[in-house]
Every structure is written in structure tokens, then in C-alpha cells.
TrEMBL record:
Gene expressing this chain: purN
Organism: Paramicrobacterium agarici
Binding site for N(1)-(5-phospho-beta-D-ribosyl)glycinamide: G12, S13, N14
Upper lineage: Bacteria, Bacillati, Actinomycetota, Actinomycetes, Micrococcales
Record family assignment: Belongs to the GART family.
The protein's annotated pathway: Purine metabolism; IMP biosynthesis via de novo pathway; N(2)-formyl-N(1)-(5-phospho-D-ribosyl)glycinamide from N(1)-(5-phospho-D-ribosyl)glycinamide (10-formyl THF route): step 1/1
Name of the protein in question: Phosphoribosylglycinamide formyltransferase
């Protein structure tokens, strides 16, 4: 059984998809804990499913490295097989990436390497793109530059706003994340990506 720790910053819609999938006894992965860098709304999803949560507030530390050390300490308590960044809106320090890689994956609402960074959907709209997408990657020390595990295109409709496009990307992102976790549980070796 594959074990996961999931890290979030916001509402946790991708987390919810994983929790729903993992609630099926046939799904070969379990979420051990959910962590956040702030008091995130999405922690309520974990609590609803009886999953332990932890918060390591970024603002409580003097530097990103100090925050990363505290976060890594919390992650290590759970001894998970894979750590999923599911809407965590902080760059992890290199020391954290090195400690967890390659078993550290991230969701991204764009067809990478197009539109990396925190504002991918807004950037796609601003660029007049006709397509965007969703990607699941192995995290490295760049900004959304890790090896791509899976991705899928999502068309940009005429008149799309950042919100409307993001709402169409989210279901694709959720589906790809659940499938990626299933693939890892069934033997996909992240070291070969």
C-alpha cells in the first residue's frame, strides 16, 4: 500500500479528489497526513476523513530555509512513500527537495513547460493562448521545471476568464493526480521519469 503526505495552501480540491479515491478499499494508496503552510481551508477535507493534519506557518520563520527544515521534520514523522504538493504555493528549499526527491510530485494548472509559476492560468489568458492544460511533475529545484509524469491539454474557449479556464482545468488536474498516484502504487518508478 502506497503511503502519502499531501501538502496544501488553499481549498484543497485536488486533495479532496485523492481523499475520495483513497476512501475506496480497492485503491492502493492511503493518505497518512495533510500539511499546510498556513491555516488552509482544505485541511477541513482531511479532518472530515479522519486524516491527521499539521500546519507549519511560513510566516513563523525567519527564512525559507528555516521553514523548510521545520516542514521536513513534520513530513518525516509520517515516513510516507510519496509527498504530494497539491496546491502548496511555496517553493520548497533545495534541502527539502533533495531529502524527498524523486518521491515528491506536484500538480500544475498548465501544459508545462508552458506557463510555469504561481499564475499559470492568468498567464495563459494574458498571452492569448488557445490551449492550456494540466501537468503532474516530479519536483526539482526549479520553478515547475521537473520531469513531467503526465499532462493533458485543455482548450481555452473564446471569452474565457482566468476563473472559467481554471474551473475547466481543475477536473483534469484531479483526474491526472489520482491516476498518477495509482500508477505509482502499481509500480511506476519516479526515478525513471
Amino acid at each position: 500500500m502506497l503511503s502519502l503526505v499531501v501538502l496544501i495552501s488553499g481549498g484543497g480540491s485536488n486533495l479532496r479528489a485523492l481523499l475520495d479515491a483513497a476512501s475506496d478499499a480497492e485503491f492502493p494508496a492511503r493518505i497518512l497526513a495533510v500539511g499546510a503552510d498556513r491555516d488552509a481551508e482544505g485541511l477541513a477535507h482531511a479532518e472530515e476523513f479522519g486524516i491527521p493534519t499539521f500546519t507549519v506557518p511560513y510566516t513563523s520563520f525567519g527564512s525559507r530555509d528555516e521553514w523548510g527544515e521545520a516542514l521536513l521534520e513534520q513530513i518525516r514523522v509520517w515516513d510516507a512513500d510519496v509527498v504530494v504538493l497539491s496546491g502548496l504555493m511555496r517553493l520548497l528549499p533545495a534541502s527539502v527537495v533533495s531529502a524527498l526527491s524523486p518521491n515528491l510530485i506536484n500538480t500544475h494548472p498548465a501544459y508545462l513547460p508552458e506557463f510555469p509559476g504561481a499564475h499559470a492560468v492568468r498567464d495563459a489568458i494574458a498571452a492569448g493562448a488557445t490551449e492550456s492544460g494540466a501537468s503532474i511533475i516530479v519536483v526539482d529545484n526549479g520553478v515547475d521545471t521537473g520531469s513531467i509524469i503526465v499532462q493533458e491539454r485543455v482548450p481555452v474557449a473564446p471569452g474565457d476568464t482566468e476563473h472559467s479556464l481554471h474551473e475547466r482545468i481543475k477536473p483534469v488536474e484531479r483526474r491526472l493526480l489520482v491516476q498518477t498516484v495509482l500508477d505509482i502504487a502499481n509500480g511506476l518508478d519516479l526515478r525513471t521519469i
